[in-house]
Amino acid sequence: MNEKVTYNNAKKLLLDTRLKECRKEMRLSQRELADQVNQIPKENGSYALNVKYLSAMENGRRTISKQYAEAFSVVLHIDKEYLLDPEWKYPYGFDLGLQEIEKAKKLQEEVLQEIKYLNSAGLKVIRDCAAGLRTLSEYRNGTIPS
Q: Is 32 exposed, middle or buried (0-12, 13-18, 19+ CB in 10 A)?
């Protein structure tokens, strides 16, 4: 009987670890995940997930219910079975393969770099516009020579 309990605890710990790994992969804090889950409508109202309960699920003190697995799957873009079935090996419902995962990570990094570039370029345009407006204002006020 102890062997069965240990086996079940090992399975449960695996599922709890999966939740935490998926959350971190999406770069979400526990608070952010809880907030996003709570925004998902459900049949009888809405979720009331708090950080303490989420932490308990991630650390094996609470079991992930089917209802929460469904909500987590929506927010984390994973297959809910990945959080419910320890035999389920693929978080996305299929095996992407190592090459596809590396391509996706590379593309994600390129997109993040492009966003950083666009943000810095946008700030430069805003600064240039502000400088132009100051110069125009100074010209109109006669504080700079024409």
A: middle
